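Possible race condition, two jobs.
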Amino acid sequence: MKLQIKRERLLASTMIAGIALAGFTAPAMAQTTAATQADQPSQVSDIVVTGSRLRQPNLTTTSPVTQVTGEDIDIQGVTRVEDLVSQLPQAFAAQNSTVANGASGTATVSLRNLGSSRTLVLIDGKRMGYGSPQDDAADLNQIPGQMVERVEVLTGGASAVYGSDAIAGVVNFIMRRNFEGIEIDAQYGFNQHNNDYDGVGNLRNVIAGRAATNPSQFKLPDDNVYTGFSREVNILMGMNAPDDRGNITLYAGYRKNNKVLGRDYDYSACSLGGQDGNSFTCGGSGTSFPGQFTDFDEYAYTVDANGNFIPYQRSLHAYNFGPLNYFQRPDERYTLGAFGHYNVTDKIEVYTQLMFSDYSTVAQIAPSGNFFGEFANGFRTTDGTAYISCDNPLLSAQQKDAINCAPGEQVSMYIGRRNVEGGGRQSDMRYQAYRGVFGARGDLNDAWSYDLAIQYSRSQFTEIYRNEFSNTRLARALDVVTDPVTGNPVCSSVLAGIDAECVPYNIFRSGGVTQEALDYLQVPLVATGWTTQQVVTGSLTADLGAYGFKSPWATRGVQAAFGAEYRRDALDLTPDVSFTSGDGAGQGGPTNGLNGANQVYDVFIEAQVPIAEGMAFADQLSVDLAYRHSEYELGGGTDSWKIGGDWAPVPSVRFRASAQRAVRAPNVIELFTAQGFNLFDMDADPCDKNSAETYVGDAACIGNNPWQVSPDQSVSAGLSSPSGQYNFLQGGNTALTPERSDTLTFGVVFTPEFIPGFNLTIDYFDIKIDNLISSVGAQNSLDACYTAGLAAACANIQRNANGQLWVGTGNVVDLNTNIGGLSTSGVDVAANYSLDLADLGWEGAGRLGFAMVGTWLSELKTDTGLGFANSEYDCAGFYANQCGVPNPEWRHRLRVDWGTPIDGLNINGTWRYYGSAEIAVLGADGSLSNAPDTRLDRSLDAMNYFDLAGTWQMRDNISVRAGVNNVFDTDPPLSYSVGTTGNNNTYPQLYNAMGRYFFFGVTANF
């Protein structure tokens, strides 16, 4: 898209975007473009805005656009731009700094919760490439916050203008353009929390009780904690060319954020496992410390301090894995780049964007170990069995007696034992990203203008996975015999000449694990990869009114844009043999490589037809049209179109509507991702008789089919995962076909003259995606098999030898496919109001500004396409299980700005609201409100967060700022069904889970 071709257009639009900041004629927060236009309608006569390549008479478009500014970044104190964008009610965080289990190391955004793959991210109208070879969304870590002038978020879909991956909308980062001088900005911040949780579940008393019996794993944190320290320094240097013919702005930045651990907070100091009456219970993992030794049938033991086997009890001995999980990943980032433009002639302006970022982060989860490995005789078994030799000298006589182990025999034994000695599993990820845009634009004459650009981006990825056990070495280190020469325990593989480095892993007595054993068992896993994007774009825009194409009732002629684009996306992921062989004990299975590319040729056309202007009942009436045809090398041809209308019967009331069609072809990751295990969340195995609430019955569960269990297995304590995590097999599918979406929006903009400084926009949206590129979902497959008897779903359930879906080879196959669809609808509301307090009789009290943006979510409906009554379900107002992160029906953000009478001092207060959400339990009729009323987490309460900040221009060239977010240190809502879609019993990507956040910053200009 073409942005502010001439300097006067840039200055005009900048004045509109920033006029709210100067004198508080409107608040400096998220606002619709309609609001800004209302404040200064005469300032802009020819601009280009997000959602169109055409020059517009104002900043109001037929699709709603919400805006945040660079000022918002300062006032909110964020060091990550995704944290600010995700506060908008239309935006949902996907990958971000709070993700530990399953982190890609990127920062992405999902508009309307339709998936980050359907949200296009632009910088000055130019698209960003894939952020990672494991994630097809743009990585917002690459964006330098200090360079951001404003962010425009278009949520009505924009596929006909930008391409089919803009189904949900567009996030356009517009950068500072004509900066002159030197600017240095520094900020420091930290989290502070008072550990006094008093919500449901009586959790502090529960943890204190567990600490009395297991102090090594359960401990209440300090009453007052300070953590998550952050610091950031940025410098800008800008210079205008002689005669103001151009500008170049250089930027450099450094950011470092410290880790935050689950153990720092009382509400995450134990991993919730359920409830007992009115109290939560601390659950955990069966892979425990000092270990669980079981045959999943007749016995289950752990080891006491004297090295004896004692009965294993889940309520006492399950491993508390949450405290070591990172609530916030530590990260470090360096950025460097330049933005420039220069008018070579009055018809040629060349421009460039040059960007580099070096970003590293570490995701930590609980330690690795032996996850009930299927080992026997020093090797991994292929039939799901596990045995230990009765001649193993590491076993004591008492232990052998307990498992009925006779000399010369071997008995069934699965071992679940955490590598507590080695520490948490750490995924150390690093991205080096490069991006370059080179273009030329200008006016050919009074009617025609052009924009030609080429761009290239590359992201280099490296991952080192640390503190992981090798399954191969683990099998050998547990197969121990007595050395016939020395009489000491020795690995059988040493005597056999297979592995001379093997060291026995003595987990059968307290303190038996040596550093030498850890050095042998722990192996780093390494993966490298890259993504590239190449784009060539050319467009022409024309004022056809110069050739007589103009309505007799309009002053402006027909505006048109034509163009073509070529794009190639390629990626490569190369894991080492430890990844690809599935040798990592805590990986769940192999991580295979990926290599592929796709290219697309697009042609597009766009037109705006003014019908009437300045007439009675038609102050403005126009129609927008757009069409785009895409030819994918993989996926064939697709067509996208848009038709929109804009009618202002009087200047103070404007109606707008649009209808759009988009067809999105599958991308490289969706097509070619290699198959491998991942985790899904479920409260209990549906064939577990011990869980009466979820058991589906003997007829479906008991039998000899691969998806069924035996009568003994159905009552086994080991059938359900103690941590609520189960295996599924994910992977790409080359048979995928394109998905199709239809988007409808209509709304109204009020700028009443009788209320100066007030404006209101209300917009309805309805987005339906058919033939959705996704997966059925492991839980949906289980339900379709056990409650509806669908043979194809049953065939996807592959239980291990003990009937489990969470140990070893047990899994549910859930590969990419085309499912029925996904749809969402609701209403966006935005309002702005500003006034001089002198008008209320308070002379010299300053000015007040109010700005609110909110979204009512009417539906968020998934259709699995399986054809049953419960194949469609609506997640609006629900969370967990099929619905994942909470989807409140109402969210809003309200900011109040006070321009105080003290020169240069402004005070800002923000109220963020998230409505309640009910836990999703899918019923046979497709309803989700089926959880027992007695569940403590049946409903997550509505949350209110209040932020306070101030800025002071203490000198002409120096300003300072300070603030605190979550002033009242509100605790997040908790659930024992969070699983891998959240973290540490809550959803930190939505709720404030780390207490208050204090920040202090200073900006100096020279």
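Job #2 (started ~2 s after job #1):
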Amino acid sequence: MFSSILRKVFGSRNDRLLKKLRKNVDAINALEAEFEKLSDEALKAKTDEFKARIEKGETLDDILVEAFATVREASKRVYGMRHFDVQMLGGQVLHQGKISEMRTGEGKTLTATLPTYLNALSGKGVHVVTVNDYLARRDAEWSNQLFTYLGMRVGCNVPGMSPQQKREAYQADVTYGTNNEFGFDYLRDNMAFSPQDRVQRPLNYAVVDEVDSILIDEARTPLIISGQAEDSSELYRRINTIIPKLVQQEKEDEEGQEGDGDYTIDLKAKQIHLTERGQVHVEEILQQEGMLPEGESLFAAGNISLLHHINAALRAHKLFAKDVDYIVKEDQIVIVDEHTGRTMEGRRWSEGLHQAVEAKEGVRIQNENQTLASITFQNYFRLYNKLAGMTGTADTEAFEFNHIYGLETVVIPTNRPMQRKDMADLIYLTAEEKYEAIVEDIKDCVKRGQPTLVGTVSIENSELISRILKKSKIPHKVLNAKFHEHEADIVAQAGKPGAVTIATNMAGRGTDIVLGGNWQAEVEKIENPTEAQIEKIKAEWKESHDAVLASGGLHIIGTERHESRRIDNQIRGRSGRQGDPGSSRFYLSLDDALMRIFASEKMGNMMKRLGMERGEAIEHPWVTRAIENAQRKVEGRNFDIRKQLLEYDDVANDQRKVIYEQRNELLDEGDISETIAAIREDVISSVVDEYIPPQSLEEMWDVSGLEERMRADFAVDLPIKAWLENDDKLYEEKLRERILGEVVDAYKQKEAVVGEQVLRQFEKAVMLQNLDSHWKEHLAAMDHLRQGIHLRGYAQKNPKQEYKRESFALFSQMLEALKVEVITILARVKVQAEEDVQKVEEQRRQADDVPKNFEHEEANATPEEASDKVRTQVREGAKVGRNDPCPCGSGKKYKQCHGKLK
């Protein structure tokens, strides 16, 4: 009550914001007469004048009034359309990075030209985001006339364009496109091979049309680029036949003592290392099999992939045992958890190990569809420096816009007072009675010549109503949001006298329904129309327009309440544009999904007790209010789902930012030798720590193990034992420095042989290749983690916290593995010429040259049952005490039998 008194005195926040903005509108109107006197050349020259003023230090806010006045005058000359004052208000709201709620028919497309022009003056680019390709093309084509007149370039970004065409579209001052395409381009840019392959500029300012549809309805599902993992099944099978020919060596090679085996096993680290003899043996076998060219080394730059397969197959055969580490079930390898002994359905080992085990057991080798990159719309659009949106229905979701995107919603008043009559809902007992009443209403409208738009919540529903109308012989058109361009034409003519159009709520959005039909669309159908023909069409339209006004304007029939009030408001908003008359009514039945959930049996029983006859309906404002309350509950639940998706994706987003930032730095840097040197120091230090624990006694040092590890991983033969025997003062710290120095010297010798430029290129190629492959593996691991994380609730743990903790651990492991792999490859690979670098580059390109799927489909953050609530385990039957007889019937006490502590 107190807040309502304050609102009456001071006005709502919305009123106060609009009051401030009206001062600028008055200033723009004051300039109108002056700008009308300007010649075309003088008006066009304003663009360069504004750009020069911005360069001198003026802000966009400083030139807002003049820029808006320029666009209004240009629009009058190009389109013959003058921006209304309310459109000036909407334009300012968009410039401030807020959401402008403007009713259908208030001219949002024209309004958007104001902030788009103003922000494009900065030269950083503006993205106008629409819901489908047709609208992107249509709006780009339409606005191109205005922006070209003002000396600006317009680009259109739609699927199927070449990288060069996309680059040109993004270099334009204003770029129109769909939300999906902007998002996929961002992901593709972060998978690029070189800086020249990128298409987007830094994300500056976006105006999102139908912002509720894009940032809310589509935000429950992430954008995913996935590709089939490389098909190496034949290679796995061939390598699998080589492993039985290799012989195990018990002890690692030592100085002066070479064994006669091909590989050694480190059970502690679950790793296998090829001996020098083994390396030669494997090369001979591969050459015999025709898999390795004669005289070429297994460690040559072009054979890294082959070496990877050999290692995977060795581990599969010698470290992983059937019925211990895995079982074979229904032609599949199912992993057994080493801690619990339970099978882990759906989980797969990474780094090619799972495929190697499949080859070993002779089951079908599966090629996985691997996630290459993904992002949610929430996290994509939050990357823009400034974000704004416009729609006819945002106020009901204002809290979510503010909470997730930091966007305030400002409701813009209509240019003319709203005349549409929104009638109370009619509730019937059965769906059959409801459809009968709808048909009667449509018949009445057709008889009076009133156009009708029937809104449905699903394609199935719209087809059902279409069949009923066909039986009643009522001519009509059906729209299902499948063919946007064709549907826009139908929607444009849905205002003709007596027209009946059935549409799902989303069909034909972005096109106004003009009462009497759209005379401009009729003119466009005629080739080179004469003035007489145009005048005739206008006269016919005027007659139809007046007839529709007399019949009561466009009548909206809602066949069911949607679970969101916003969608209901969208269908209602198609009527009553620009002060036109109109009406709307929703027809409901107790069989509707929303009514079944919330009205339950109580209302049905009450209606029967009241003795309601067939065809009778309940109509009362209380009932309508009760339904709106039910919708609020569903909206709240859907908001929680989107919020949960975002909270889970935020964890991945922090990691994504780190990786993409690192990757972009690598692409832009010509020389990454300093980065490599720092990583090398970390890796060598970690390896030394494993064999010589920090601040430990000499008795705890495993010197021979360290020597073998340095030989196997870094291709350096270090007589560490001899160093220690010859120098009593060689302590742990100095020993570390000496080992690192030797590794660095060996690397410098390699650099001297192949040349600095070749090695710099090779470092960059290896770093990028390994970063990409590890990031893909990490995304797959994160997917697996997310699918099963909700089960932690049964252990009284918070799934979200567990997910954060484990994903951080996975990310840390991934970075460590990346460092080790990059340094070991650089140390062991024999680079002989620039061709070797090109081979690695070619491998990277081939790895990426697999068919990709661009998906934006239903993919919840966690399975449906995922929740942050801690689960309580429910026991079946009575609790068995520790001293009670065991239920198995053995006669022992429970604690001595099945309750025995293991």
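Residues 278 and 797 are 48 Å apart (CA to CA).
Logs attached separately.
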